[in-house]
């Protein structure tokens, strides 16, 4: 079965960013794609703050990452950049942790002005970790994501469409990457 690791870079819970990631994970699961959410805020603070690369607390996240065909990285944007807790986690990953991974960045922010933060702040770090195949980014302004009294999530129509399109793109890319290619022999 195809497997996707969804990394939540939000320092708070519940959050719009985490809710959007949960929605993405549920949709992938309904498409028969096994998805696991890893919330970096749940890792021990001392591991992240002191850069403990060899901490046993990182063994499971690294194993989950290695096993994944696709990665979703979600983060709120603060002061034109992704979160510090996500940065601390990414700094602890092996140099080429994202080689051969298909990556879907998802971000939320208070204003559309931070949209390019993904391109100029997050993607360069992910590229440094070996990511080369990025799926169309989903960026949502806070007002486009509303938590309902029953706990469900109401997405603005535009975000709903972009999320669905990006998830479909991720599914196709993962299936293409994990399906053995049959090469025709030309005599």
Give the helix/strand layout.
Layout: E1 3-8, H1 16-30, E2 34-39, H2 45-49, H3 59-67, E3 70-76, H4 84-91, E4 102-109, H5 117-128, E5 133-134, E6 138-141, E7 145-147, E8 153-155, H6 157-178
Parallel strand pairs: 1-2, 1-3, 3-4, 4-5, 4-6
Antiparallel strand pairs: 7-8
InterPro entries: Flavoprotein-like_sf, FMN_Rdtase-like_dom, NAD(P)H-dep_FMN_reductase, NADPH-dep_FMN_reduc_SsuE
Keywords: Flavoprotein, FMN, Oxidoreductase
EC number: 1.5.1.38
Q: What's this, in brief?
A:
The chain is of the alpha/beta class. The chain is 38% helix and 21% strand.
Can you walk through the features of this model?
The chain is an alpha/beta fold. Helix content is 38%, strand content 21%. The chain contains six helices and eight strands, in the order βαβααβαβαββββα. The strands form two sheets. Strands 1, 2, 3, 4, 5 and 6 form a six-stranded parallel beta sheet that branches. β7 and β8 form a beta hairpin. The longest helix is centred in the C-terminal third of the chain and has 22 residues. The chain is globular and about 45 Å long. It starts with a strand and ends in a 9-residue tail after the last helix. The relative contact order is 0.17. The C terminus is likely disordered. It is an enzyme of class 1 (oxidoreductase). Keywords: Flavoprotein, FMN, Oxidoreductase. This is NADPH-dependent FMN reductase. GO terms for molecular function: FMN reductase (NADPH) activity. It comes from Leptolyngbya boryana CZ1.
